[in-house]
Amino acid sequence: MFIFRDLKKAFDKVPRPAMWAVLARFGCPPDVVTLVRGLHDGMVGRVCHQSSLSSLFSINGGLKQGCVLAPTCFSYTQQLC
């Protein structure tokens, strides 16, 4: 039996409070958790469509796609949730 998971969509669904708790549970020092949290808190985005930019909007959930820490954080979160 095979299970296919769309990781792009799965990364968007990781609850951030759970990620902070998981990192602490796995023994990450509080300073590291604070650093990773600082990379995610306050994120904003824009959509570009036909050379037109939308206004800024908040990104309040999920992991940063393209971040080298994202796969590790995602993996840890999936093991405990």
Automatic annotation (TrEMBL):
Transmembrane segments: none annotated. Residues 1-81 form the Reverse transcriptase domain. Pfam families: RVT_1 (PF00078). This is Reverse transcriptase domain-containing protein. It comes from Petrolisthes manimaculis.
